[in-house]
Amino acid sequence: MQVPAYVEYERATSVDHALTLLARFGPEARILAGGHSLIPMMKLRLAQPETLVDINDLDDLSYLTVTDGELRIGAMTRHAQLLDSALAGEHFAILHDAERVIADPVVRLWGTVGGSLCQADPSEDLSAAFAALKAVMVIQNLEGSRTVPARDFHTGPYETVVAPGELLTQIRIPIVPGGGSAYEKVGRRAGDWPIGAAGAAIWLDGDTVARAGVGLTAVGAEHFCSAPAEDFLCGAPATPQTFARAGQIAAEHCRPVSDQRGPADYKRHLAGELTTRALLRALARVRAHAPAAAD
Amino acid sequence: MRITVNVNGTEYSRVIEPRLLLIHFIRDDLGLTGSHWGCDTSNCGACIVWLDEQPVKSCTVLAPMADGRRIMTVEGLARGGRLDPVQQGFARCHGLQCGFCTPGMMLTARWLLDHNPDPTEAQIREAISGQLCRCTGYENIVRSVRWAADHEAAVSADTAGQAGGTRARPR
Questions:
Q1: ipTM of this model?
Q2: Do B18 and A52 touch (CB under 8 A)?
Q3: DSSP character for A30?
Q4: Which of A141, A246, B96, B131 has minimal CB crowding within 10 Å?
């Protein structure tokens, strides 16, 4: 039987209340969002917070809107809400691709977008999707708020820049017209963490890649992305050959480790192949949404 | 700490340690053993109950998170002495053998049909994809849920006529 260590429990009624509670209980307090990563960690005693600050009542952190040219996702948005959001799917198909393969439908009803990011599991799916989309995280404390690029958000496995006394409140994704995105994941079974996964977002100028984002997870990619593959893509023709080479570059620059999910060389193979597939699917989506060429 | 929950329409108030998991609170503190404690790792779904309006794996919820909220367990599915259409489907289509996964399967099926009254086989399989059954190979579970979908109106009308109630939502 798995039982968490003794812990105190507080329920926050507002963002300010949550921040006040975090300040009062100090660095050994942890935010409890959906709990579907934190509670299993507590049961295994891999996490032993002294106090939990439950923010499940903070409905004002649960939303998806388009504001000032950005898709804004409240940190307490449940995975199921993101998957059901036509607004999110319309702008960033990669988010629906990823959500469809995160855990299972019942877990997705409770697990939250912000909770997944702050848990910072090195195999987490949305971290790669948000890295590909070059999202920006909004972090709040009692003094105010600050923004951090998705690629600077994680400082290591299970570690983020969110300091004691702070709360991730929002994820912002700039909406740039003319783009397409996709996510490709290989797992051992339905609902599992990935053996490897890749996300891609591209924008075209004619038949040339004008802008690209490549996200990777579970394969030891620094900041959940592949900057070298992105550099190669920008300015290159949007062709299967280009995408195959970008996949090779992504594979060369990640550092997967062998574990129960698979050997390192297989994960490296996945990093490359899934990057290529995600790019191809992203391209198909750009073309599907592009107005017919006037010729 | 003291928590108060409404389980299947009945209020319960208990003093607990905050680290108590909801499944153990329901089974050991309240004595409602219809919900099963299975894998303990949120994989199998045997412990699924409804928290407010949604199914949740109760081995991955702390009891204090349920304070002030409503819970429905398998004991609350039947209303007015009549089985829920989902329960009738499992009985008619042999949707269980050992029965360990059954409470969770039925509670997820109820939620699915409330949101999608006419699910395809693929949608049923997706809905229960976070739950494990080691007996049926899932075939008869899928048939049971489909039976419930096909007979929902008839069974519900029958129940309404008899008991004055309709769906088994916790109130």
A1: 0.94
A2: yes
A3: E
A4: A141
Instruction: In chain A, list all ranges with CATH 3.30.43.10.
Output: 8-54
> What are the start and end residues of each CATH 3.30.390.50 domain in chain A?
179-287
Topology of domain A179-287, per CATH? Enolase-like; domain 1 (3.30.390)
Give tens-digit pLDDT for A88-108: 999 999 999 999 999 999 999
For residue A293, pLDDT over 80 is answered with no
Query: Is A35's CB within 8 Å of B57's CB?
Result: no
Choose the weakest-confidence range: A7-11, A226-230, B80-84.
Answer: B80-84
| CATH 3.30.450.20 is the classification of domain A8-54 | no
pTM (2 decimals)? 0.94
Q: Would you call A54 and B126 a contact, using CB atoms and an 8 Å cutoff?
A: no
Class of domain A59-174 (CATH, top level): alpha beta
Cβ–Cβ below 8 Å for B130 and A107 = yes
Q: What are φ and ψ of residue B114, in 5° steps? A: -65, -30
- CA–CA min distance A85, chain B (Å): 16
Where do the DSSP E strands lie in A18-111? 29-32, 51-54, 64-67, 70-74
Q: Choose among B18, B40, B67: nearest Cβ to A7.
A: B18
| pLDDT value of residue B168 | 45
Residues B40-85: pLDDT tens digits? 999 999 999 999 999 999 999 999 999 999 999 999 999 999 999 9
Contacting residues for A53 by C-beta, under 8 A, at least 6 apart = A10, A11, A12, A18, A21, A22, A25, A29, A30, A31, A32
Numbered ranges of CATH 3.30.465.10 in chain A: 59-174
Residue A2 with chain B: CB contacts under 8 Å? 40-41
